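We close this part of the discussion by returning to an individual protein. The encoding preserves chain order, so positions in sequence and tokens coincide. The sequence in question and its structure tokens are set out directly beneath this paragraph:

===
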Amino acid sequence: MTKNPKIDTFKALLETAKRGRDPAFDQIPTWRAQYGGSHEIDGGAPAPVVRNITYELIESQVSTAIPAPRVDPEVLTPRHEKNARAVEELCASLRNKLQIERINDLDERTTYIEGGDLFFAAWDEKSGGVRLSAMSAYDFFPQPGVFCVEDMDWMILRFYATREELLQKYGKAPEAREEETGPLPLYLCLYRGTGREIGLFLWSEDVVLADLPDYYARRRRICCRCGAVSAGEVCACGGRTVERQDVCETLTAPVTVGQGEDAVTLPAGTRLPWYKPRHYPVVVRKNTSRHGSVLGQSDCAFIRCHQQEINKIESRIHEKLLSSGVFAVKPEGVRFEYDNTVGERVLNIPREHSAADFGTVDTTPDVSQEQAQSDRLYDQAKRLLGITDTYQGQADATASSGIAKEAQIKQAAGRLDSKRVMKSAAYADLDRVFFELYLAFADGEQPLVSTDALGRRQADVFDRYQFLEPDGQGGWRYHDDYLFAADLAGGAEQSREALWQLNRENLASGALGDPKDPRTLLCYWRQQEQARYPAARQNVAYFEQICRETGHNGTENATERG
């Protein structure tokens, strides 16, 4: 196999990234081991006992809350506002389709342990949708000296795959070696071209698997004999096909852009530019920001000294207790008989001695000071991370009332709020990546499920043609100027049980209308359905039927309340 001369250039970039990478990246294996309960003591013998406070404190912060997408147009017009709502529905629908809860579960722990992690999104042509991966920061090699992903000229990601997987997907793979064990590393370099377009170069060892200078350009296979577009490597006429970049899309049927008086119909044959995503498909989520690094701060780094000292102290307690015990005492030279008859345990003492001559000596040491110091270090580690007993769900005598406990929870959440803000920021960046990928590659109307103002689920679609606008030069362009944010609400919205209770209180207080009115009950159960209350959907269907039978459609109450 002929060696691609470009591979040396990208291998040199990888070595540059390794040499210039933040030293915190090299600490990631140490932090992983610490979270896993490592017995290692820095500069000393391994500890026989581990009290894993790192695992406990990180697990107490893990949140299952998924930020809700929020999209606003930069220029407020009715059409832009409608498109912004469509993008919100698209991103919300993708969260369900991608089973984001599983990705979030991994992402939460990885972020706290390593100081951050990565999301990598790619368009999957087979499924016609987005494929999302959560990656460890250890497999990220950023351009040295640049701390924002979008400012980088290049970056490299490391993946792993078996030789069989490479052959199946790319038709080639590095040659097999006798000493080879496990999957092979793959390196993917994303870079900016001369026109700021995004390029991709993928290799494993000395084999180039993909070389796409314009990664997001649309491509099609053209027959070298007849010039027709073909789906395979051989045309229907028998000629060989080659892959070429497709600059424009030619409409095969009329397309209506906009609605009402502003609607414009583009006839078949109209040529439209393909949209190309402007942002890298890589999003970094930081734990808490750290100056001069693309990676955030690891919780493990902050409490490592406390974990180490606690392990030493707990090991000392362990050794003391193992070497202690209760020993029998008797006069020297005395012999006695011991009857161990079932139901009777009798010690026969010689006549010249009394029971006072026999006894025990307890050598159990006092470990109260060690226990106190271990607990003291644990409390210090909790305070460093802003975690209280109330936040962990443990008994807290300082909270003497429900209001006081709620205040403590809010205080703890406030101290951890920066982590939640960084999570929301990462999801907002991820939503923009989703939007750009669908704008570039989602052909045809994409079905969505949306919820209207009354809480009713309804079918909807995402149509990329609705984002077309005149470019001022007689042509068309895709309008992608939208502001992305994410709402990771605190307090009750992070707990479904609390939200269920809040809905019940709103119903009882009359905030939704007359609690006896079936329209009010329908509104209540729609809200509970949104909060994933068990069997809420069946109750919604039940009260919808009652409203129909009584001549109400479930909307009058909302209208009357204004």
In short: DSSP finds 16 helices and 25 strands in the chain. The two ends are 73 Å apart (CA to CA).
